[in-house]
Amino acid sequence: MTVVIKVGGARAVDPAGALSDVATLVEGEQSETAEQSSGQGPREDVVLVHGGSTAVDDTLERLGIEPEYVETPSGVVGRFTDEATMEVFEMVFGHLNTQLVAGLQSLGVDAVGLSGVDGKLLHGPRKSAVRVVEDGTKKIRRGDHSGTIKEVNTDLLWSLLDGNYLPVAAPPMAGDDDGEIIPVNTDADRTAAAIAAALDAQLVLLTDVAGVYEDPDDPETLIETVETGEEWQALEAAAEGFMSRKIMAAEEALDGGAPEVVVADANADAPITGALDSEGTHIYKEALQ
Questions:
Q1: Angle at 249 between CA 246 and CA 251, to 5 degrees
Q2: What single string gives the DSSP state of each residue in the chain?
Q3: Rounded to whole angstroms, how far apart are CA atoms 54 and 209?
Q4: Under the phi-then-psi rule, with left for phi > 0, alpha for psi from -120 to 50, and beta for the rest, what region is 211?
Q5: Contacts by 235-240, CB closer than 8 A, 24 or more apart
Q6: What is the structure's pLDDT at 289?
Q7: Nearest to 206 by CA among 94, 99, 125, 281
Q8: CA of 181: how far to CAs of 114, 120, 128, 176, 249, in Å?
Q9: What CATH architecture applies to the domain 2-288?
Q10: What is the pLDDT of residue 38?
Q11: What is the pLDDT of residue 17?
Q12: pLDDT tens across 96-108, in order?
């Protein structure tokens, strides 16, 4: 089984538990492989994807730049990434990626850090203009540095996985700007979804809550499984704010080939193994059929 794990970038998320759990998974795989004859038995591969929007906002504020978020006509709120913000984005995500790789290396995991630009891991058109809603009026904002992932370089990922390296991937992506490749922003949840879809992998979205709640203010209303169209509609209705973007990513992953998406708590004792077992909200491909 192949698993893509996305560790959220929210301030309340501590990645230490996830990294430790990744090491446990990898050690388990290595032990299992050692006990099997060469080429026999199922193999579990892990790709880690990370966010970092909170760290970007904090750095922008320290530099005296106000983070700007805009709302699309469909009601999705996202970052408007101008040239100065893009420079900070590259700097912060590069730092976070290096720190996570170092953390995994300290735990004995042979991790390799990648941005979406490396080997055109994540490739698609740049969106220099975006449609937004301001004061109830639809407008076009130009000068944006964002993009839409259309291709994932799975050959690059499989070459690393086959060499027993663990890829640690993150935005920015390789944006095609009239034939020129430039780094552009893309959402980390949707990055993980694109990778999971391309690898036909199970996707685990780790965040700062235990999953999706029917009542966002009541943790006792956790939605545990989503297997039917009716349950999917209820899930979409329940998702608010940042969670709506995760459900959008879940839909893209499932539509693209992922068999299952789990939304779970990054701060649990064993967040990944727990999510792969029964914790969190489990969304199955059948819910979209």
A1: 115
A2: -EEEEEE---TT--THHHHHHHHHHHHHHHHHHHHSPTT-S---EEEEEE--HHHHHHHHHHTT----EEE-TTS-EEE---HHHHHHHHHHHHHHHHHHHHHHHHTT--EEEEEETGGGSEEEEEEEEEEEEETTEEEEEEEEEEE---EE-HHHHHHHHHTT-EEEEEEEEEEEETTEEEEEB--HHHHHHHHHHHHT-EEEEEESSSS-BSSTT-GGGB--EE-SHHHHHHHHHH--THHHHHHHHHHHHHHHT-SEEEEEETTSSSHHHHHHHT-SEEEEGGGG-
A3: 16
A4: left
A5: 235/281, 235/283, 235/287, 238/212, 238/213, 238/214, 239/212, 240/216
A6: 82
A7: 281
A8: 16, 9, 13, 5, 25
A9: 3-Layer(aba) Sandwich (3.40)
A10: 40
A11: 92
A12: 999 999 999 999 9
**117 has a pLDDT exceeding 90:** yes
Q: State pLDDT tens for residues 240-253.
A: 888 998 999 999 99
**Domain-wise residue ranges, the chain:** 2-288
**pLDDT of amino acid 28:** 63
Q: What is the pLDDT of residues 163-185, one digit of tens each?
A: 999 999 999 999 999 999 999 99
Handedness of CA 279, 196, 170, 189 (dihedral sign): negative
85's tokens: 């913000």
Q: Which of 57, 98, 103, 96 is nearest to 80 (CA)?
A: 57
Residue 59 has pLDDT above 50, yes or no: yes
Indicate the pairing of strand 69-71 with strand 77-79: antiparallel
**Residue 187: both structure tokens together:** 């959402």
List phi, psi (to 5°) of 186. Answer: -150, 155
Q: Is the pLDDT of residue 41 over 90?
A: no
Q: What pLDDT, on a 0 to 100 scale, did the predictor assign at position 79?
A: 87
Neighbour count for residue 249 (Cβ, 10 Å): 25
Question: What's the pLDDT score for residue 39?
Answer: 41
